[in-house]
Specification:
The chain is of the alpha+beta class. It is built from 2 helices and 2 strands; from the N terminus they run αββα. The radius of gyration is 21 Å and the shape is flat.
């Protein structure tokens, strides 16, 4: 039941985000190191949100692998 409620809240937030995103069509300039792009404000927010999500997942994956690797090294040192 808790999982179903969590999924319903996430879907509701996505629907509200899509509705607000479809209303706001204002363009903004995004100046990067190499290029200059003109995108909607919603697209820029989505781009940075996804970039943060990917970076967070990569950092947590690396941290998790580092913790597991320490356990593997300890086990191999105990056997020899």
């Amino acid at each position: 039941m808790r999982r179903l409620l969590f999924i319903a809240v996430i879907v509701a937030l996505i629907v509200v985000g899509v509705l607000f995103g479809s209303i706001n069509q204002q363009l903004a300039d995004l100046h990067l190191l190499i290029i200059n792009v003109q995108l909607r404000v919603v697209d820029i927010a989505l781009l940075f949100l996804l970039l943060g999500l990917v970076l967070g997942l990569l950092i947590s994956l690396l941290y998790s692998l580092q913790r597991k690797a320490k356990g593997w090294l300890r086990k191999s040192a105990d056997h020899s």
